[in-house]
Structure formats: structure tokens, C-alpha cells
Amino acid sequence: GVVGDTARDEIRSELAVALRLWTHSSGVLLSPQTLDTLEVFAGLRLITRDPYSVALFETLGAQPTALALAEVAPRLQMGSADAAVVPQTILTSELLDQFAGGSVLRRIGGRT
């Protein structure tokens, strides 16, 4: 379908925005750095509570760690990780402001 075609095209062009289409997560990917190509995920220290995201980001060459939800956002804020996948439900304007110069990739309701 249209979503799959768009994802395939974005992955082929190596745009990181294609990650908004990952199928097993309703999370938001946050990073203080710009995640503009898939190559930037190599070696990226990423934290998440979602085991499906762990498998996806391992495939991209990142070093993901699954943590309890309560640990994810604080660890990212402390700088002990390069990126995090957090549930949309815990996003605050303060948390989003912290990553205004980096990347905030959302997946909303199965569509980008």
C-alpha cells in the first residue's frame, strides 16, 4: 500500500524519517543529535522499553538497551544514551524542548 511504498522509498534513499513507520511501536524516537540517515544509527546508544524496537535498532547497527519505562527518559536527559524511544503518553513540552535541535520522530495511529 501507500505506507509500505513510502517506507520502501525512504529506506532506499536512507532517510531516517522512514523509522516513523516501524510497525511494533507507538513510541517516539528522541535524540539530541539529528538523525537524518540510517547510517547514524551505527553504534548509537539507544534506550527503550519496547523489545521490538530493540530488534529493529540492532538491525540498524545501534546498541539498544531495554529498560523499565521509568528509567528511559531520565537516562536520556542525563546523557547516558544517544537516543531513546519513549511512549507518546509521557511526552511533555519540556522534554520536547530539550530535543528541539535534534530529532523527534513520531508514529501516530499507524500513520506518519
List the uncertain runs. Answer: 108-112
Radius of gyration: 13 Å
Strand % is: 15-25%
- Name the average pLDDT: 76
Helix-strand pattern = HEEHEHEHE
Structure class: alpha/beta
Could you describe the largest sheet, including whether it forms a barrel?
5 strands, mixed
Estimate percent helicity: 25-40%
Strand arrangement across the biggest beta sheet: 3-2-4-1-5
Coarse morphology: globular
Query: How far from one another are the termini?
Result: 14 Å
Number of helices: 4
> How many strands in all?
5
Can you tell me about this structure?
The chain is an alpha/beta fold and 112 residues long. The longest helix is centred in the first third of the chain and has 11 residues, at 2-12. Mean pLDDT is 76; it is low at 108-112. Helices cover 32% and strands 20% of the residues. It has a five-stranded mixed sheet, with helices on both faces. Strand 2 (45-48), helix 2 (51-59) and strand 3 form a beta-alpha-beta unit. The chain is globular and about 35 Å long.
What does the secondary structure layout of this molecule look like, with pairings?
Blueprint: H1 2-12, E1 27-31, E2 45-48, H2 51-59, E3 63-66, H3 69-78, E4 83-87, H4 93-98, E5 103-106
